[in-house]
Amino acid sequence: MFLTAKFDRTWRAMTQFRAKLGVARFRDLMADVPDALAELGSVAHPGLAEFSLLLGGDDFRAFLADITEALDAESDPGAFWAKWIDVVCERTKTKTGGPKGSA
User: Fold this and answer.
1) Is the residue at 101 inside a domain?
2) Which of 20, 21, 50, 81 lies most in the core, judged by the most C-beta atoms within 10 Å?
3) For the whole model, what pTM was predicted?
């Protein structure tokens, strides 16, 4: 439940952010987020920074590409959540040695 709520908040925030910026600018910014987080630190965008830490470099870039694509398609976030919750749980399991889904 904890991860679902986190993804839900992120989805809502990204939807609102995209609406304010417009599609083209949002896409450009999502491509720049990993480098910007590295430069600005986690204080500027704690939600994204947390996903960045959980997922790591390449997976975080894939997460941003997937959320951008899902928002562009105006799809239901359920499939997006399912995929990335599984990835986060698997990454957490690998880091902690705990059972899958214990995050």
Assistant:
1) no
2) 81
3) 0.71
